[in-house]
Amino acid sequence: MANTTQILDDGLQLDLSSLSLRAENSPAEPPSLQLLNPFQDLLDLHQDQDQIEAYLRQHLQPYLDGCQTLERLAPDNPFFQQVRDFWEKEGLEGNGLSNYIDLLCGILNFPPILLLNPSNWDRLALDDMISNSPTLSWLQDTLESFGFTLRDIVIIDMFPLLTDRKLNSIEEEERSRLCNEAFNLTVSFFRQFQTPVAISCQCSTRRGHARWDIVDHPLADQLSSSVYKARGRQVTRVRLDDQIIHVAQGFHPMHEYAKNVHIRLDLEQVLRGLLSALYEPCEDWRIRRRQHYEGEIDEAAKEVITRMTAFLDSITDYRRAQRRAASFGTVTPRLGHYSTPRWTDFKDKVRSFVDILLPVTS
What predicted TM-score, i.e. pTM, was given to this entire model? Predict the structure, then answer.
């Protein structure tokens, strides 16, 4: 029996008709047909492979292990100049620009999430926009269960800065121009930051979509996902110039608002399972790195203390030598100190060294 539910979230209409379940009494494929291909066992083995787990093992974990620092995108990054130029050229208004930048300024080491027009409330300040958007609120709650906040993860809007209100108010030709220029900003992001993986949670930029099949760049279709592929835990490989982008297949979070409770629970398990598989290793890596560098700081601090102790001991030896020299008239006591003309340069170097270690602060 087919279950079809129309869902409206943030101006995005979703169709769950693809979730039709085959009746349990449907006849199975005859065994004779399954044996037509002598290599079918090998093909089935490849198809049954969990591509998410394979990607984690072969790509994401080695990539994280090679990262020495946590890289967070900053609002003053030169990338955003082209975004600001587009905003000003099109005469756009509101909080859309600042919200787009805030959502994009996450940790670059971790997989970003691809969404389509993540909120229809981008006219509001960021926190108000998140609380009013079911999509962003769901993502925020889900990410927190993995140890992250929404500000930790890069959220990429496929068509940045554009709203349904704007697109509905212009003619088709102008809409096509705007969408292509906006999508070029997304392409530019992937090029500049060499993003190795992304989680696609949107299926609307696929070929043949009634509204969004107006983008000339082939990457738009390649970054699209589907519930079917998400169920199969598939990871597609996309080429952009000389760069390979692995696209983990998800779907829009609002699919979880399906009226059919069985479908809703199943979809929640699928999407949460995908995000958990990709982000929990990231949090484990962050914890391990933090502990590693905390240990390095402790060891470095111990080394500083050891060397400073040796330095102070050497100063004590120097003072002792001064007192002995004074008894033979080599140095002259003066106001509780010793005048040592031959060692003036040495004393200046010591003072300079101490000033560097202990700078004067106001």
Answer: 0.75
